[in-house]
């Protein structure tokens, strides 16, 4: 018999979409895929060079559980120079992607029935990760007028004696919204008063277009002490397949995370770690160039979506997504359980455009598109959305 834990796990919506896209493609049907949150770039060349050097120099043996020293030093320097946060080497744990870093932290900190606050909309895997460790996800409603950013007051109203942690994703997936320094200070104050940890998912921190990014741990020594900062190389450095992320936390938490990781996977691939080292040391210009291109793609998507009647969207300040309000079309589409799923299925079936239903992020009146793709796909995909909307 399978574990009973699987009974409470929701299958991935994005995997379901990918399966439908692949099925159509296998039948020779062209599909414009705006559902994938993967950079439309390759690994920077200087990061590749470090992979080659590592292989040629036989740096392929077991190493430290928490990561190779050279990479951890580069992360410490990065956090100091870019985020104004100061960590020792033993406060950094390198893992197999940011998702793995989050899972390590949840295992290290949560007990069964602990409650974790998750503002809506949320990244699709957060609730399932929490449920897998026996804790309880508590979803917090947010306001579209505030770009779906959680406020200190909303957090305070949902705190119970079982509340252990809150997730703050900044910049946000799926909205692209960015928290201001003042907004984060107010959130930290509430968490400090109530002894709540902050899981700060900052994987999109480099992809910011307007606001100055503020790392939660930089706000104060007290904020740093309750914050587990999670970051990685998939989004900023287009290293999705290399599976490399890291967490930064206080010494007690980082030791616990390292202990968990040591028993589960030992350590991430040494080859991937050398790629991460090369990315941090030599590829800052690559990131700047990527962000400039993303900004152009964002502006293209905004200009086209702004012309479609009955659609609205959250103006993205960061990341590479647009969260699109389709609520005005609700009366035009017959739906059973989920309006956004039926909308996405009909869009894919009729116009061959794949997007992610908002229910995957906890809000059913929206869809998410990714503009981390070619301009041709953005143009063709949004035209397909326009044609579908106009046909209703």
UniProtKB/TrEMBL annotation:
<dbReference type="GO" id="GO:0030170">
    <property type="term" value="F:pyridoxal phosphate binding"/>
</dbReference>
<dbReference type="InterPro" id="IPR004839">
    <property type="entry name" value="Aminotransferase_I/II_large"/>
</dbReference>
<dbReference type="InterPro" id="IPR015421">
    <property type="entry name" value="PyrdxlP-dep_Trfase_major"/>
</dbReference>
<keyword id="KW-0032">Aminotransferase</keyword>
<dbReference type="InterPro" id="IPR015422">
    <property type="entry name" value="PyrdxlP-dep_Trfase_small"/>
</dbReference>
<comment type="similarity">
    <text>Belongs to the class-I pyridoxal-phosphate-dependent aminotransferase family.</text>
</comment>
<dbReference type="GO" id="GO:0006520">
    <property type="term" value="P:amino acid metabolic process"/>
</dbReference>
<protein>
    <recommendedName>
        <fullName>Aminotransferase</fullName>
        <ecNumber>2.6.1.-</ecNumber>
    </recommendedName>
</protein>
<keyword id="KW-0808">Transferase</keyword>
<dbReference type="InterPro" id="IPR015424">
    <property type="entry name" value="PyrdxlP-dep_Trfase"/>
</dbReference>
<dbReference type="Pfam" id="PF00155">
    <property type="entry name" value="Aminotran_1_2"/>
</dbReference>
<feature type="domain" description="Aminotransferase class I/classII large">
    <location>
        <begin position="30"/>
        <end position="378"/>
    </location>
</feature>
<dbReference type="GO" id="GO:0008483">
    <property type="term" value="F:transaminase activity"/>
</dbReference>
<keyword id="KW-0663">Pyridoxal phosphate</keyword>
<dbReference type="InterPro" id="IPR004838">
    <property type="entry name" value="NHTrfase_class1_PyrdxlP-BS"/>
</dbReference>
<dbReference type="InterPro" id="IPR050596">
    <property type="entry name" value="AspAT/PAT-like"/>
</dbReference>
């Amino acid at each position: 018999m399978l574990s009973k834990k699987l009974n409470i796990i929701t299958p991935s919506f994005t995997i379901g979409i990918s399966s439908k896209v692949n099925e159509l493609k296998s039948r020779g049907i062209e599909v414009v895929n705006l559902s994938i949150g993967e950079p439309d770039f390759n690994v920077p060349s200087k990061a590749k060079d470090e992979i080659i050097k590592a292989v040629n120099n036989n740096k392929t043996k077991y190493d430290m559980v928490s990561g190779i020293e050279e990479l951890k030093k580069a992360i410490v320097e990065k956090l100091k120079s870019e985020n104004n946060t100061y960590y020792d080497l033993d406060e950094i744990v390198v893992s197999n992607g940011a998702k793995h870093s989050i899972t390590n932290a949840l295992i290290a900190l949560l007990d069964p029935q602990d409650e974790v606050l998750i503002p809506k909309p949320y990244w699709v895997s957060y609730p399932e990760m929490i449920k897998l460790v026996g804790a309880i996800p508590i979803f917090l409603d947010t306001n579209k007028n505030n770009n779906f950013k959680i406020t200190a007051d909303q957090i305070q109203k949902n705190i119970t004696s079982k509340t252990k942690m809150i997730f703050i994703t900044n910049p946000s997936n799926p909205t692209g919204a960015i928290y201001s320094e003042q907004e984060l200070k107010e959130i930290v104050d509430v968490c400090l008063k109530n002894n709540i940890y902050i899981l700060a998912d900052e994987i999109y921190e480099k992809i910011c277009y307007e606001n100055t990014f503020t790392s939660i741990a930089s706000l104060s020594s007290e904020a740093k002490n309750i914050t587990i900062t999670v970051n990685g190389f998939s989004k900023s450095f287009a290293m999705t397949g290399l599976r490399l992320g890291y967490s930064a936390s206080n010494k007690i938490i980082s030791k616990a995370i390292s202990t968990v990781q040591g028993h589960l996977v030992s350590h991430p691939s040494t080859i991937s770690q050398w790629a991460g080292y090369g990315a941090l040391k030599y590829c800052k210009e690559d990131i700047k160039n990527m962000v400039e291109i993303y900004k152009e793609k964002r502006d293209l998507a905004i200009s086209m979506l702004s012309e479609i009647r009955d659609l609205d969207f959250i103006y993205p300040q960061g990341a590479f997504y647009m969260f699109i309000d389709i609520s005005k079309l609700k009366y035009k589409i017959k739906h059973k359980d989920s309006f956004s799923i039926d909308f996405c299925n009909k869009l894919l079936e009729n116009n061959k455009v794949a997007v992610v239903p908002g229910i995957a992020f906890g809000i059913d009146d929206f869809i998410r598109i990714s503009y981390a793709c070619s301009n041709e796909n953005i143009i063709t995909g949004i035209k397909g959305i326009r044609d579908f909307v106009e046909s209703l």
